[in-house]
Amino acid sequence: MKIYKTLFLGLGFVALSSCSDFLNQTSPSELDNESTFNNAYYAELALNKVYGSLTQDQTYSNFLPIIAGTNTDCELIDGLGTDASNTSSERGNMNYNANPGWAQLSKVWDAMYGVIENANLVVDGINNSQLIQQSGATRTSMMRFRAEAMTLRAMVYFDMIRLFGDIPFKTETSQSDLSNVYIGKTDRDDIMDELMLELDEAIGYLPWAGEDGYTTEHVNKGYAHALLANIAMTRAGYAIREQAKDGYITGTNSDATYPTQRCSEAKRQELFKLAEKHLAAVVGSGKHNLNPSVEEYWRLMNIARLDQTYQENLFEIPMGLNKSGELGYTIGYRINGVSSLFGPKGNSSGKLKLTAPYYLSFGEGDIRRDLTCAISQLSTDKNTKEFKEAMLGNAPFGLYCGKWDYRKMMENTEWYAAVLASDQKVCSGINVVKMRYAQVLLMYAEVVNELYGKGATAEGCTLTATEALKKVHDRAYTDATKRDAAWTALMQKDFFNAIVDENAWELAGEGVRKFDLIRWNLLSEKIEGFKTEYTNAVYNGTYPQYVNYKYRTDNPMYIDMTSLIFGAKVSGYENKGFFGAETTDKEQKNLKVNLPSISGGLNKSVKNRYLLPIASTTISTSNGKLHNSYGYSD
To answer: pTM above 0.90?
Structure first.
């Protein structure tokens, strides 16, 4: 039995639906590889199958963009107390109490390697195609298809490394005699080195987004540049290792048996120079820019509309309404209860949560706070039976991520009609963003600062590291006085620490921060820091005990979020106990039960064990080629 599912092209293409036309195609039911890849139309259908396989729940519809990015200092899975030890669900496993018996592990492994197999078929098929021996438009198209498949394969392998560490690696199709199927692990550094070489080749054949109708729903030159840079920075960073590596530097919070290490300083500088080159290519191209309004950016995301003006998203995986896409449902502002407004299902689960210290960390006037952190939900009042907005109250580890929001999604009339008509979950069809320009600017600022200092520029660019960071920071403010005050405060910090903070304010909830904290070797430190901050605030009484608010006069279903007053009770306002209510709670459940359970397994048996184990079922069918490490059993 194979260690991952192989979807043979000879069994026929799968018809897949998406908001992008390139997935809405049909094909003959049976084609051999030679026929497929000696015809440009059929070759593109084979590539579409790779894109289509990214829309599974176990790949990028749910697991990778939502579940995999928990837990950090500001993003949590919704498992607290005893739930945080439940190793049969994500609640325990993503609190770093992982178990090889968790059924989801093998499903993710199989689905992700299925994508890789589909990509291998395309790359091998085109390598052996007669069409690439020709010249002209057909060869150009075929080489672009090959480059897209190579880039998608690199993306998936990179994500698998970040989930599991050292993994099996092959870039050829599986043989029918299984001679190249049962293989052991390859060191992740070697894998990343190979991925960077492949991406460097692919870049030459990919167009920029916006050229010849080529949208950000395809991998493109800008994304391949940025992905290569991200891999280089990860390769240069810290990781927990199966064993110590000669010449590597051991970091803090390192396990004696499974050390947390990074490469030598000389190699790190080489990798950062490589990242500089590719980030500078994106920044210098002018093909991608920040949408001037962060609010408008998130409005467009919520209504599933491509931004072809600024193209802030370098690549977004196309999802299909009512077919795929959990953004807005499994993560987002909470809708809790049946209503005429949101139909008979009346529910969005909000599985990913944000924290009180994170909410209170934003600078005054930073509009990202209320875009990112939802301290309310829509629910049916148990007394009045009204469906209305209600404050969450003292839920310091249970804030919802408001970047995806049913109230904004209503503008998408197709989605809204589907929700009103169904008593089942409706997949949002919102695309999953794999890289946006704000992240590129933050990586650029980090690389240039490390290589040359915050006032320097990358080779070929006029943008300094400070200016790149400021672009991201300034967009978050509409009040110039508050913007300047917040920037002045930020610049009082070490520049690298300013980048780390801006990373949280800009990217929380998007599946990015966890992996940056890992390569910085700050995951454990930042988690412990947030816990200490919460504990000190409770004991010192520095959190506001109440949130006072009024309902809107034009639509009393909703709270007027401009009316909020934090602190003591205010006459004439509705109020609810807020984070500071912990001081009046004799049991202090959040402090004494919930807080210790958060990410409780990270340093319990093996220090800094953030990686997931390989599933027991995957190991048992690997013909003895695979085994767990980091203290996990097989």
So the answer is: yes
